[in-house]
Structure to design on (209 residues):
């Protein structure tokens, strides 16, 4: 039994995580790591797309037009160690204006409810997520071609379009993308700070498996 109003419950624990919500400081969301991913969606010209911070995730926010897109080499572990710094619904923090490239093992991929390809990257025990939006969910932004090409390159690497069930390619890859800080909503393979490469603007399979 959990007793509210400041009384400590005996022999009972409540799971809570630090949640970096867009435009705010860390908040507490109980049970956010329950297992299954939950994210709002909406229809855009017949395609199922996302809602939360969608302009930022697809480079349609005003700040994206000011970015230089110079690629900074990084590791999965390093990106997972950065301080959480999330922007708002249509704005990005200074850290979210940087583009990073990592070499990692692509261990899992699936298509999410918002039609993004959800990639789980692993490097020396550290994990993080990279996301590839569906072209139909993007505006006519400057780097739309790069995002579309990256998604096509992934499909070529795994043998075709990715479905809603997990596949496990276990490929050595180089992934380039814009840094993005998500919040806990049951996603698999997240970094400790929920840093992602979102959207991915470059994808290449490396030699060897």
């Amino acid at each position: 039994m959990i007793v509210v109003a400041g009384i400590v419950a005996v022999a009972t624990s409540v799971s809570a995580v630090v949640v970096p919500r867009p435009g705010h400081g860390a908040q507490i969301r109980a049970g956010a790591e329950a297992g299954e991913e939950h994210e709002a969606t909406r229809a855009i010209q017949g395609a199922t797309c996302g809602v939360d911070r969608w302009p930022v995730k697809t480079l349609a926010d005003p700040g994206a037009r000011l970015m230089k897109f110079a690629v900074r080499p990084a590791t999965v572990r390093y990106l997972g160690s950065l301080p959480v710094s999330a922007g708002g619904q249509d704005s990005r923090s200074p850290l979210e204006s940087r583009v990073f490239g990592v070499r990692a093992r692509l261990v899992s991929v699936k298509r999410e409810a918002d039609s993004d390809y959800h990639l789980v990257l692993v490097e020396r025990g550290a994990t993080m997520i990279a996301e590839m939006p569906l072209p139909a969910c993007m505006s006519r932004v400057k780097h739309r071609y790069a995002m579309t090409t990256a998604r096509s390159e992934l499909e070529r690497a795994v043998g075709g379009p990715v479905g809603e069930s997990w596949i496990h390619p276990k490929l050595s890859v180089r992934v380039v993308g814009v840094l993005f800080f998500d919040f806990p909503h049951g996603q698999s393979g997240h970094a400790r700070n929920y840093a992602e490469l979102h959207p991915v603007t470059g994808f290449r399979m490396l030699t060897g498996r």
